[in-house]
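Weekly structure sync, notes
Attendees: PL (lead), two postdocs, one rotation student
Agenda item 3: pending single-chain targets
PL asked that the sequence for the first pending target be pasted directly into the notes so everyone works from the same version. It is reproduced below exactly as submitted, 232 residues in total.
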Amino acid sequence: MSDSAPPLVLAHRGYHALWAENSLAALCAAEAVADGFETDVRLSADGALVLAHDPFAPDGSQIAQRTLRELTDAFAPQDGLTTLEALLGAINPSLFAFFELKVAGIEKRVLKAAEAVFGDHLRLGSFSREHLAAIPAERCWLIGRASGDPSPTALPDLTGGASAELSITGLAARANACPLAPAVPERAVWAVRPQMVPGLLAAGVCYFITDDPIGVREVLVRLAGARSSLRT
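Predicted structure, written out during the meeting:
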């Protein structure tokens, strides 16, 4: 993304105001309220790439130890378990897509399948550098989570140096990510609320991953209008 390009709003686990997180319906609904989506990828016991944040099915069993057929039975229809393959066959390819890799060993498969649909509008991310080592740096976001809620201007630099090692404790902490390619001027932040937008813009954040895409977009439009008025 260039310095002059407006920031993008990504629906966190899809637009889940009406549908289950990471469900096919929620991810496809992102088209109506955001510029793209963020979702999580795991691996079933028989090698299916499934979209799920938590490692457990609703019945408490581990996703990694169940086949896709068993997982389909374990998830109720309203829980919305879907596969990467199903998503790629249904989603608008013009959306920006961010896939968080929850397990190792799936990065090349996810990249190959998703890049064929989204092209440059694609990033893969992980809290682990090792999960990203086998794919091009310009497609990667390394994720960190600061303990507490630091000011937007103090977002850590994840690419190296003393601030690269982050605490990933604190469930209320704000996560942020930046590319492994140092020349790529990108920064993404999770769990963005509308009131955080002005500070994050000032900090150079260009991807807003949010559970409130409508509210965040409204603030961005309002601020863009204010800036336009100041220039006239």
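Discussion points:
- Strands lie at 8-12, 36-43, 49-51, 96-101, 122-126, 140-145, 175-179, 188-189, 207-210.
- Residues 115 and 122 are 7 Å apart (CA to CA).
Action: rotation student to compare against the earlier draft before next sync.
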